[in-house]
Structures are given as structure tokens and as C-alpha cells.
Amino acid sequence: MCIFVALDFDGVITKLEVDWNEVKSKVSELLGYKVDSLFEILLKTWNTPLYREISRLIESYELKAIEKARPHDYIRYVLDEFSRKVSGIFLVTMQSLNVINIFLDRYELKGYFTRILTRDDFPCKKMQIQYIIDNLGIESSRLYLIDDLPRNCEICLELGCKCILIGKESDKFLCAQNLLDALNLIIRYLEDVC
Fold this sequence. Notes:
Layout: E1 4-7, H1 20-31, H2 38-45, H3 49-66, H4 75-85, E2 88-92, H5 97-106, E3 115-117, H6 125-135, E4 143-147, H7 150-158, E5 162-166, E6 174-176, H8 179-193
């Protein structure tokens, strides 16, 4: 086993049905000006009381969505396979730790993860991935990010990691329709390299 995987949560493990436009509207009301990007406002307010207030507001919507969320097909099979074939599985998400714990506990998935990094720890995916590389002693070229957002895959490449984009087409990244397809791509890589 010579690689590690970092999985996104919403869009990879499950799908949270959150009306993000409504969330942006509520955050805009809180701040008193129009917010176009939750990503940008979280970065801008990181490590402040305002960040925590915004995060709690976002979490209120996530908590409603997590009640209806179900794991994507084959998730337990994929996590079992990753557990046997890779050196560690990280969960890197912009959801709150509370929301993640509710879901992982409900579906008994928490034990699969070497480390869980959330919005409570870092305001962006780049800082989460950088933390894994810097603080856990993992070579960036040995880390695969599996995510459904091209922006996060771009960041991954900048940091020297490999990435698999889920559910979308791209000329820049390895692409997979779902997590099961991503597993098969990684298995092929392992057979060729490790």
C-alpha cells in the first residue's frame, strides 16, 4: 500500500439537498451586503467570531439536509476496498463536524477514516489538503483527492496531488462517474505503480 485517498463528503459520499442560494441570501442578511460566494466569505472571515456565526447559520441548513441524506450506492464496499488497498482514508469536507458525525455515526462509517477534516478545522479544501501533506508526513504525489468540484481538483493539482473528479467531464483531471469508478481507477494505478 503506497497511496492515500482524501474523499469529499457532499457529492462523493452522499448528496446534501441544501438550497445554497437561500443560504447565501441568509448569510447576506447577516452581513448586511450581498454574498456571491460562501467559499470567499469563509476565507475572508476565518478564525473570527463572525466565521463561527456564519458557520452555525450554514450548519442549520446542513442539519436539515443530513436527516434525509443517504450514502451513495456501494459506499461501504468502496470504503472496505480502500481500507485494504490504501494506506489511509481521509474525509475532507466543508461541512461542519457535527453534521459529519451525525451521518457517519448513523451509517456506521466513521471507523473507515484515518482523519476527518471539516469546516470547523479549516475554511477551505486547500488548507485541509495542505494539513494532510505537512502535518501527517504524506508526500503530495501519494495523495488522491476524490471530489465533485473542479475548483478543488485544481487546488489538488497545485499542491502536487492526484485527483479524480466525480460526476463531471474534464480534460484536466481523471474523471469517474461515481466513487465505485474512482476505486477502479485507483486499483489500476496501484497495480501499475505500487
